[in-house]
Amino acid sequence: MTAYIIRRLLLMLPTLIGIVTITFIATQFVPGGPIDQMKSLLRGHGSTLTEAGGGAMTGPGKKFGEIDPKHMEALKKIYHLDRPLWERYLRTFLWYSPKNKTAPFMESFFDHDNWEGFLVLKFGNSFYRNKSVLELIKEKLPVSASLGVTSFFLTYTICIILGIAKAVKHGTRFDTATSLIVLIGYSVPGFVLAIFIIVLFGPGDGAIAHLVPIAGLTSAGTPGYESWSAWEKLTDYLQHLAAPLLCYVLGGFATLTLLTKNAFLEEMRKQYVLTARAKGLPEKRVLFKHVLKNSLIPLVTGFPIAFLAMFFSGSLLLEQIFTLDGLGLLSYQAVIQRDYPIVLGTLFIFSLMALIGQLLTDLSYVLIDKRISFDESQG
């Protein structure tokens, strides 16, 4: 087991380097970088700059959109594009840059502040937001974590209970009706449901009932909010969370529910269940002590990844519709604006979480089913 874990951890490093390398190459050659966006901005505001007497960026005798060479060099320095491509690539992962040139080498070498790069968990600063990537993730994390954590526990709780009930009552009207409801929910895209909710129950004048708040996950900033009681703030939070949460989890019920049902049915048909019933064991003991334990093994496959992802979940369309400022919107804006530090930093963090989740998934198999052994499989 220890040797297997060490091998998997060592394999994570080249995997992460490969993922970030491919993305780095793509970002460097895709048109529309920061300099191109500045030129486009100058072209779009050419008349405004003329009326205001501007032109410092373009220089005398130059057309709008043509940046003065001195300012071009300054812009490249701001966006770190003045460095060679190989240096930018190495700085992405690991780079030694001593702040104090006169300090002893050994003291400077082991100083964490003199190192930069993803491998020392330094992701740089955003080009446009004047904040570090980690600070931006911390700012957007409450929205994404609120949706992710709540949907995780809600989905797993409802789906496991519903899946077991469907397996026990297989072929009945309850099984048919719940399957129809679950599949309808699966077939309706979350953003389509979100639009219907906003139109029918949103803050607009044409809504049937004004049940969905305007924006955010709380009413912070409204007059008197600070004087509200804890119960009033909790009620307000749940009211803001209800609509986006419904749209977020609706499509995820079908897969997990049917997986639970099928795994439970498969175990119920095995010989040991017939033997347990023949011995006169109560049905509840057979189902929840013997069948449930073995039927949960397939559900372990996605549990660790879902558990880690619940803190970083995001949905661009739902965040746009419900005016939520989360990680989904941050990632989208970073790609559109070519904010390379955010794009590469969030990709590195999400990829690392996915690889750790895959490792925890494999380890969970061993903990639940003692018949699985990595030592035997390697032998």
Key features?
mainly alpha; globular; 3 domains; 18 helices; 65% helix; MetI-like fold
Structure description:
This protein has 379 residues and is mainly α. It is built from 18 helices and two strands. It folds into three domains: 35-79, no CATH class; 83-122, no CATH class; 133-378, MetI-like fold (Orthogonal Bundle), CATH 1.10.3720. It has a two-stranded antiparallel ribbon. Helix 1 (2-29) runs antiparallel to helix 17 (340-368), helix 11 (253-268) packs across helix 13 (283-295) and helix 16 crosses helix 17. The radius of gyration is 27 Å and the shape is globular. The model is unreliable at 47-54 (pLDDT under 50).
Write the layout of secondary structure elements.
Elements (H helix, E strand, L loop, with lengths): L1 H28 L4 H11 L1 H6 L17 H10 L6 H9 L1 E2 L8 H5 L5 E2 L16 H36 L4 H15 L2 H12 L28 H20 L3 H16 L2 H8 L4 H13 L7 H7 L6 H6 L5 H11 L2 H29 L5 H5 L1
Antiparallel strand pairs: 1-2
> Major sheet, described briefly?
2 strands, antiparallel
Query: What's the CATH class label of the largest domain?
Result: Mainly Alpha
> In angstroms, what separates the terminal alpha carbons?
12 Å
Please tally the β strands and state the result.
2
Strand content: under 5%
The CATH H-level superfamily of the largest domain is MetI-like
Q: How does CATH name the architecture of the largest domain?
A: Orthogonal Bundle
Strand order of the largest sheet: 1-2
Mean pLDDT across all amino acids: 81
Question: In the residues, how many domains can be counted?
Answer: 3
In the predicted model, the low-confidence regions spanning at least 5 consecutive residues are 47-54
Count of DSSP-assigned helices: 18
Helix percent reads 55-70%
Q: Label the overall shape.
A: globular
CATH topology annotation of the largest domain: MetI-like fold
Helix and strand run:
HHHHHEHEHHHHHHHHHHHH
Q: Report the C-alpha radius of gyration, rounded.
A: 27 Å
| Helix/strand class | mainly alpha
